[in-house]
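Page 37, continued from 36.
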């Protein structure tokens, strides 16, 4: 019967990985879940979860993945700044 691990169970597996070995952590995961998982995938998953736990203040065991796009720039105040400039200042900006 497979099941998802809770945060505490992940913390226990990560402690086993850090203190004893990755193989013991692998066996413990299989004992808890009963899933058939490739060892490479599980080792990668345990390493990723341990990185998330090691970060200070990390509450969840999930990484928030953004779209990779930078946030949009707010250009709404630029017209008011340009209107406040004198003609001489506008000419200096255009010339440089």
């Amino acid at each position: 019967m497979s099941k998802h691990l809770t945060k505490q169970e992940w913390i226990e597996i990560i402690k086993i990985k850090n203190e004893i070995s990755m193989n013991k952590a692998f066996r413990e995961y299989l004992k808890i879940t009963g899933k058939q998982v490739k060892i490479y995938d599980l080792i990668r998953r345990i390493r990723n979860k341990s990185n998330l736990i090691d970060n200070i203040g990390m509450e969840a065991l999930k990484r928030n993945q953004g779209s990779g796009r930078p946030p949009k720039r707010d250009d709404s105040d630029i017209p008011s700044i340009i209107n406040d400039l004198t003609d001489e200042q506008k000419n200096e900006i255009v010339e440089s």
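The first helix runs from residue 7 to 19. Flag for discussion at group meeting. The chain has a mean pLDDT of 80.
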